[in-house]
Each structure stands twice: as structure tokens, then as C-alpha cells.
Amino acid sequence: MPSLGRYIPSSLVSPRIRSAARQRLAELGGMTLWLLALALAASLWSYNPRDPSMNTASTQAPTNLLGVVGAYLADALLQNIGITCALPVLALVAWGWRVARHTGLGSVPVRVVALLCAM
């Protein structure tokens, strides 16, 4: 996590304010993970096999809620890992909850490898 000491001299900020700022940054990080989960879920939910993607040429505009990016993302995920593409959505929600509740994630690389193995 970034240190406030880089931007604000420690003599100007009390430890209480510094602690509160760290807590708010953690909550913001959790909300960011939730937004990523929501975007991924919206992309997968609005998947249309007729949307333009890497292996589908189409002149029509994508119907995916996230547009071209969502169409490409949903197509790639569904073709490569199938229905288990819902696992990253669930993992992002769970990780966001842990970060927002100030419990931390522990070892992030281990969690990412475990998620990949679960898929």
C-alpha cells in the first residue's frame, strides 16, 4: 500500500488521520474489486455469440453491455474456460470483501494460482 509519508510530511499528519486514510484506501480498493467483478459479470451476462470477436466477423454493433471490449472478453473467457468463467467474478467479490473489511488478502500470488487451478 502506498505510504502517505511520500506525499505529506509525517509531522503534519497525526497517526489517527494516517490510520483513517489507510482504512479508507483499503475500502476504496475493495470497492474497485467489486466494480471489476460487476463489469466482468455484465460482460458475461450480456454475451452474444453474434457479437464481433476474434473469431466472429460481424458488421453489426456489439450488443454486449461493455461494447467491443466486453464482447471480446466474454467470447475469449467462454471459449477458453467455459462456464467456470464465473469463478473470477466470485473471486473478485470475495477478495473485494476481504480488502474492504480490512482482513487483507494474505499472499496474492498464491491466491491467483489457486484460482487458476480451480478453473
List the helices and strands and how they pair.
Elements (H helix, E strand, L loop, with lengths): L14 H31 L21 H15 L4 H15 L7 H11 L1
Helix pairs in contact: 1-2, 1-3
What would you note in describing this structure?
One of its GO terms (cellular component) is plasma membrane. The structure is a single chain. The chain has 119 residues and is mainly α. The protein has one domain. It is built from 4 helices and no strands. It has helices spanning 15-45, 67-81, 86-100, 108-118. Helix 1 (15-45) runs antiparallel to helix 3 (86-100). The chain is elongated. The two termini are 29 Å apart. The mean pLDDT is 85.
Short description:
With 119 residues, this protein is mainly alpha-helical. It contains four helices and no strands.
For the record, the count of structural domains works out to 1
Major sheet size, sense and barrel closure: none
- General shape: elongated
Count the beta strands.
Answer: 0
Structural class: mainly alpha
Number of helices: 4
Sketch the topology as an H/E string, one letter per element. HHHH
Low-confidence stretches: none
Terminal CA distance: 29 Å
Using the CA coordinates, give the radius of gyration. 19 Å
Oligomeric form: single chain
Q: Beta-strand level of the residues, as a percent range?
A: under 5%
| Helix content, binned percent | 55-70%
Protein name: DNA translocase FtsK 4TM domain-containing protein
Domain DNA translocase FtsK 4TM region: 23-118
Transmembrane segments: 25-47, 76-97
InterPro entries: FtsK_4TM
